[in-house]
Amino acid sequence: MATTPDLGRYGIWHGRVDLTPEIAQETERAGFGALWIGGSPPADLELAESLIAATDHLVVATGIVNMWTADPHELAASYHRIEERHPGRFVLGVGIGHPEAIKEYRSPYQTIVQYLDTLDAEGVPKEHLALAALGPKVLALAAERTGVVHPYLVPAEYTRAAHEQVGGRVVLAPEHKVVIETDVATARAIGRSRVATPYLRLRNYVSNLKRLGWSDSDIANDGSDALVDALVAHGDAAAAAAGLTAHLDAGADHVCAQVLVDDKADYLPALRELAAALGLKG
């Protein structure tokens, strides 16, 4: 019987556009257990396979493949290709995306169910599946149909509530943004730019934040300082690390850090600083 690959306690989330084998190698070397590919990777999963092939033991996950744009039959075939060549090192994360990006967006819950049904019929084991989820209904579905639930853009208070609902039934693996920068204004500016556009303009994320008690005034004008601080851990490396461990303290099994840097800054030094602050050993 398949088992869910061991993601470790900490992982890295990185958009697919500029994700390279070298970044995957550095992620593994730094001691992170998993690398999540964001930005809706296509169904061929060639990027995921190249990252696995470039590393020795790092688990690679998609965070997430968009159900509206990726054919599930092609996706299942790609999963089996990777699993045959690199057994136990891949988690297939899928999700519904958001309505603003898809003209044909309709019946999201039924679309998720049907998509999972197809992957199941194609022999993709639930233990190797992750599902993007925010609301209670999809959280419950993830606990029933997949091995990992992957909430995105959530504070630790969300993780606490999600753990109360599905803890112990599925690996709870939220994403959290971090900025290693001690100047508060600079750190918030970097974080706000990645939170406000596009997420504070997408109703599924806004609705989730409102369920947690955030107000219209918090969401307006690209997000209040308090909201940005809740969604983006910033300060020195120790403060950034504390923002991640808060999710583990709230009941997460794994937390993946999206390390944000100024557009002109080198990404890898921040990655290494965070790993050191977390006490990771490659």
From TrEMBL:
**Database matches in Pfam families:** Bac_luciferase
Q: Name one GO molecular function term.
A: oxidoreductase activity, acting on paired donors, with incorporation or reduction of molecular oxygen
Matching entries from InterPro entries are given as: Bact_Lucif_Oxidored (IPR050766), Lucif-like_OxRdatse_MSMEG_4141 (IPR019922), Luciferase-like_dom (IPR011251), Luciferase-like_sf (IPR036661)
Location of the Luciferase-like domain: 20-166
A GO CC term assigned to this protein in UniProt: cytosol
Which superkingdom does the taxonomy of this entry point to? Answer: Bacteria
Instruction: Return the PANTHER family for the record.
Output: CONSERVED PROTEIN, LUCIFERASE-LIKE MONOOXYGENASE
Q: Which NCBIfam families match?
A: F420_MSMEG_4141
- Name used for this protein in its record: Probable F420-dependent oxidoreductase, MSMEG_4141 family
